[in-house]
Design goal:
globular; 43% helix; five-stranded parallel β-sheet; alpha/beta
Length: 157
């Protein structure tokens, strides 16, 4: 059984971000069974904690039962591209579906934090969630090329 990778993000991407994300997803799709799922943002009338909770409910509803969840979270562990490649390889070998979750502009709700298997940080920068989705798809593609020995990745070591 092949692992399926779900990329779950809150909100729709604007055209420039959509185009970049689609390009990397198309390339990544040659290496990994990947599916992107978008979740509607919670209403602006809600306070940020309620928005996070509502978006967490929507995200969890879009992830199949038994799927391991990795959150993009600034409080998570930073991974190099090579470390991500190693993780991607181990995820594929385990053959357990995996969801990479990118929260909305207000962050992640408690239910989402509790459901997470692990947390991945892109570093201490504050980044727009649309850009994070592009970075994540590019890094997943890069990880796949590292595993294939493809010259796309020019690491520092």
């Amino acid at each position: 059984r092949l692992m399926k990778l779900y990329l779950v993000g809150v909100g729709r991407l604007r055209p420039a971000f959509r185009e970049a994300c689609d390009d990397y997803l198309r390339r990544l799709g040659r290496m990994v069974n990947v599916e992107e799922r978008e979740v509607r943002e919670a209403g602006q009338s809600l306070a940020p904690p309620e928005r996070r909770d509502e978006e967490a409910r929507r995200i969890l509803a879009r992830i199949p039962a038994g799927t391991a969840i990795t959150l993009l979270d600034p409080r998570g562990s930073p991974w190099s591209s090579e470390q991500l490649a190693s993780r991607l390889d181990s995820w594929r070998l385990a053959a357990r579906d995996r969801a990479l979750v990118i929260g909305g502009a207000d962050g992640l709700g408690d239910a989402m934090l509790k459901a997470a298997y692990e947390r991945w940080s892109l570093g201490p920068l504050t980044l727009p969630h649309e850009l994070v989705r592009v970075i994540v798809t590019e890094q997943l593609y890069r990880a796949g090329t590292i595993l294939q020995g493809h010259p796309y990745h020019r690491g520092t070591g």
